[in-house]
Design a protein that fits this description.
Number of strands: 4
Shape: globular
Strand content: 15-25%
Helix content: 25-40%
Distance between the termini: 12 Å
Order of helices and strands: EEEHHE
Structural class: alpha+beta
Largest sheet: 2 strands, antiparallel
């Protein structure tokens, strides 16, 4: 997927949690991200609540923050727990922006 920025075609990217990231750090990422962006998608009953685990839910929040902050590589660092991907991580009812 590509998008236009200033008339140029740019590869769309998303930020997700590294699968082997420390659970405590992922909890911190969720807390930080939710202080900056709307985290209703990961609330119980939200479109991204399932699967109910830290990697999945942190990935949603980290990507919401990454996109809102401008999508720079530094916006996906999260203390070394973030990973930029060009593969859309959306699944089921959970649609990543």
């Amino acid at each position: 997927m590509t998008r236009l920025i200033n008339g140029e075609s740019v590869q769309k990217t998303w930020c997700v949690a590294k699968p082997n990231a420390d659970e405590t750090k992922l909890k911190d990422n969720i807390e930080f991200g939710c202080s900056k962006v709307n985290c209703s998608p990961i609330d119980r009953g939200g479109s991204c609540y399932e699967p109910d685990n830290y990697v999945a839910q942190a990935s949603v929040v980290m990507n919401l923050y990454y996109q809102a902050a401008g999508g720079g590589s530094w916006d996906c660092d999260f203390g070394g727990t973030g990973l930029i991907t060009t593969t859309d991580p959306s699944y089921g009812t959970c649609h990543y922006v």
